[in-house]
Amino acid sequence: MKRIVCSVGALLLLGSALKADIMVYGPGGPAPVLKELAKQFEEQTKHKVQVVAGPTPSWIEQAKKDADIIFSGNSSMMDGFIKTLPKQLETNNIQVLNIRQAGIVVRPGNPKKIKTFDDILQKGVKVMVVDGAGQVGLYEDIALRKGKRENLATLRKNIVFYAPNSKAAVEKWNQDKSIDALIIWSHWAHTLGSDSAAFVSLKADEVIYRAAEIAVSNTSKQKDVAQQFIDFVRSKGAEQVWKKWGWQAN
């Protein structure tokens, strides 16, 4: 029975893809913004946009076949996509979208009273970090922003879980209530919701920013419509949607 259900689900996904004017692929971070803007774009232009998002292995092979647009969570991730998708992407067609800040997700009500980066260095604070996808080295960058080696050494002792990507981090956060803090992008607090998380901003001399990026695939048969959608995503009218999901609008 499970095999039949999966087959039906695959057929439904294939059917929706066939009806789409453009196919868009990328990670889960910027996806809520792009999905909401895709609906608005379709209402205004009647061009359907299908956004497929998640960890890279879940969509990369299909993207090789029919991607019109590829987006990323940061520049290093896009650089990886350029290497993986050489027919679809090249450096000179990458367009920079909006930025988000890294900070600390804490439990509702902030029971550990975490207000600064130094607070997660205290003994007994259980920290989770993301050490993959668009956040490779992020916790190290934050810890060493002030040039203090001891900050990284102390943080290492408090890290109890290294998530391979943001999706895995969110799942672990919901499953393991013993974790006190999660170093991750600000918009994931919005995704988790106020019942599960609150966000603590880092000080100006501690915070790290990274930008989402996007590109029209070289193999797209709908390049004009694809660029039209990207222009819509980058437009002034789209700024409120970016802000709604925890990004800094341009």
Automatic annotation (TrEMBL):
The keyword Transcription does not apply. SUPFAM superfamilies: Periplasmic binding protein-like II. GO terms for molecular function: molybdate ion binding. GO terms for biological process: molybdate ion transport. This is Molybdate ABC transporter, periplasmic molybdate-binding protein. InterPro entries: ModA/WtpA. The keyword Signal applies. It comes from the Bacteria. Keywords: Signal. Residues 1-19 form the signal peptide.
